[in-house]
Amino acid sequence: MSILAKSTPSQVCFLLIELVLVLLFLLFLAAAVFTKPNIGSAAGMFICALLTVILVKRSAFVSLIKTAYKTQAGKMIITAIAALAVIGVITAIVISVLMISAANNLPDEPTTVIVLGCRVKENGPSLMLQKRIDAAYDYMTENENVICIASGGQGSDEPMSEAQAIKNSLVEKGISPDRIIMEDKSENTFQNIRNSLEIFDSMGMSRKAVIITSEFHQLRAKMIASKQGLECYSKSSPTYPPLLPSYWVREWFGVLHELIIGRK
After folding, report:
1. From CA 222, how far away is CA 225, in angstroms rounded?
2. Which of 50, 71, 122, 233 has the fewest CB atoms within 10 Å, counting from its CB?
3. How many Cα atoms within 13 Å fall on the side-chain side of residue 189?
4. What CA–CA distance (Å, rounded) separates 98 from 155?
């Protein structure tokens, strides 16, 4: 307390920011340790570590910038890095706003559901998949005539297909198996949508669906679905809060990839 009492308001502010960055770093690290490592956890740890070092050594950092800025090459490098940083921040903010706005958008009338699969563990659906199943159950209970496409194949480390796990859990909750159609061949979101649309077309169903997936995933799923001609709506499942930062940052890269390179 004596250290804080002797500190200026700006020093206290910097200290609080550093603590927040350390906590975020630990969240990204935990996500990498307890789930499959992804670009979101790696990028998150790098950014948090870099900003923490800059803040802790801010006097030396400012001095370095001033010295480098005196040369033409240094000025160009600093300007380029600053421009890239600003573009990166703006891009992340814009994508985040779009992700939030895409999270929940229900149709006015009952509509076929597509549940996007994710990891199945030895003892059943992963927490993330179970949340998606719960969201599907809620929608199907509220709309008793709605059909569900359970979509997801079987990975090499999964005891059954994700589609089978979704169906089993919904049936255990009381949903009639007659209302669930399995699509158990897909390996990614693109295939989830493509294979589900093949089922729609074979059954003469309208290309219109409520996509049920995690909130961070909805925007990219909608982008992929729209390219394939699906009129899509969304109902999101919540992500376990400590894991959300990692998956959220990962989706920044996923959305950019889909926007620039994604298949049509």
Report:
1. 5
2. 122
3. 22
4. 30
Angstrom distance (rounded) from CA 205 to CA 198: 10
Task: Tell me whether residue 249 is in a domain.
Answer: yes
Percentage helix, strand, coil, to 5, in the chain?
A: 65, 10, 25
DSSP 218-251: HHHHHHHHHHTT-EEEEEEEPPPGGGHHHHHHHH
**Residue 13 and residue 16: Cα distance in Å, rounded?**
5
**Domains of the chain: total:** 2
- 128 and 222 inside one domain: yes
Q: Which of 78, 165, 87 is nearest to 121 (CA)?
A: 165
User: Model confidence over 175-191: pLDDT tens digits?
Assistant: 999 999 999 999 999 99
The answer to whether residues 171 and 129 belong to one domain is yes
Average pLDDT over residues 84-109: 96
63 lies in the same domain as 175: no
Is residue 71 domain-resident? yes
Question: Residue 6: its pLDDT value, please?
Answer: 63
Report how far residue 5's alpha carbon sits from residue 165's, in angstroms, rounded to the nearest whole number: 56
Q: Residue 79 is part of which domain span? A: 2-102
Determine contact, residues 101/113, Cβ cutoff 8 Å: no
117 lies in the same domain as 233: yes
For residue 102, the SS3 value is helix
Q: Could you report the per-residue pLDDT of 199-224, keeping only the tens digit for each? A: 999 999 999 999 999 999 999 999 99
